[in-house]
Structure formats: C-alpha cells, structure tokens
Amino acid sequence: MTNQPAPWQKKYEWRVTWPGEGHEDWSAYDDDLYIGRIMRDKTTHTKRGHFMWSGGAAQHDGFPKRLMPHQGWEPEHWQAAKAVEDWYDAMRERNGLEPRVAPVSGALPGQDAPEDRG
Question: Which of 85, 68, 96 shows the shortest CA–CA distance to 30?
C-alpha cells in the first residue's frame, strides 16, 4: 500500500473574476476578504498554458507580516488554487491567526471555480 496524499478540497470561496467574459480566471475570498487569484497564462513564453497564482490580502489590516513569494505557476487550475489557499493559510499563521481547516460552505460548483482534486 502506498501513502497517497489526502485529496485536496477548497477551503475558501472561489468566484469567476470576470463573469460572462469566458476567461479562465478565478478570485478567492475568505468571507469578503480577497485572498488571491488564479488565471491561465497566455503570454509568458516559458509558462504559456499554465495557471499563474498570486496571493492577496496582505494590504488588509491584520496582516502586517507579508509572506513571500506570493505568486507562481502550476500546470493545472486546481493546483494553482491550492497554492493560493496554502499561501493564505501560511500568511495567517505568520500573523498569529489560525488557518481554516474545513471547506467553506456555499463554494461555487466545479464548472464555475477551481475543482476539488485528489
């Protein structure tokens, strides 16, 4: 028997960044707090087709200690979404806040937001 990592599940709410525009672009929120974004990179020569992720939230009160790096690329959208959530949880911990441990209720369906994978 091999040790398989636990399946990843979204912990935060993901919304289409530009509804109706047809872009592969989602933004993540912890309640009303913007925490990051993923989008398919169509221009960077060596990363074209990958999903770029970037963390947000550092400009808000309660996060005086910024966590770097705060962006990167992943081959799949769910991996980029996981990178945003992992970055945000690490930044919460760095600033003395507990990470969220349970998936958020009311997250958008898989066709509207990064899918859970495992």
Answer: 85
